[in-house]
Amino acid sequence: MKRETIDGQQYIVERIGDTKVIHVGLEDLPFVDKLVMTDGTIIQNMKFERIAVPPIHEVKQQLESNNNLQYS
User: Fold this and answer.
1) Rounded distance, CA 44 to CA 30, Å?
2) How far apart are CA 24 and CA 20, in angstroms?
3) How far apart are CA 47 and CA 44, in angstroms?
4) pLDDT at position 29
5) Contact indicator for 48, 33 with CB cutoff of 8 Å
6) Is 44 exposed, middle or buried (0-12, 13-18, 19+ CB in 10 A)?
7) Domain boundaries, the chain
């Protein structure tokens, strides 16, 4: 699910099994791949996801366009 912060930055929240994963751009922290919170939530830096195979941003674009069709 695509969401937006108060300052307008977009992020994506998804559930993988029992784990919540929040994908957000952490350009100011380029050395951070991901943070794991004490409750098991993972905050994933989208900057590192762009080099994944297959590229995660391509998968998310497809999911987002499918979601937009559902809400139209």
Assistant:
1) 12
2) 13
3) 9
4) 77
5) yes
6) buried
7) 2-71
Q: What one-character DSSP code corresponds to residue 25?
A: -
Q: What is the per-residue pLDDT across 5-63, written as a single tens digit (0 to 9) for each? A: 666 777 888 888 888 988 888 777 777 788 899 999 988 887 766 555 555 666 677 76
Residue environment code for 7-39, b if the CB has 16+ CB neighbours within 10 A, otherwise e: eeeebbeeeeeeeeebbbebeeeeeeeeeeeee
Alpha carbon distance 29, 45 (integer Å) = 9
- Residue located via tokens 């992020």: 11
Residue whose structure tokens are 């108060």:
6
Tell me how far apart the alpha carbons of residues 58 and 64 are, in angstroms, rounded to a whole number. Answer: 10
Quick check: 55 and 61 in contact, CB under 8 A?
Answer: no
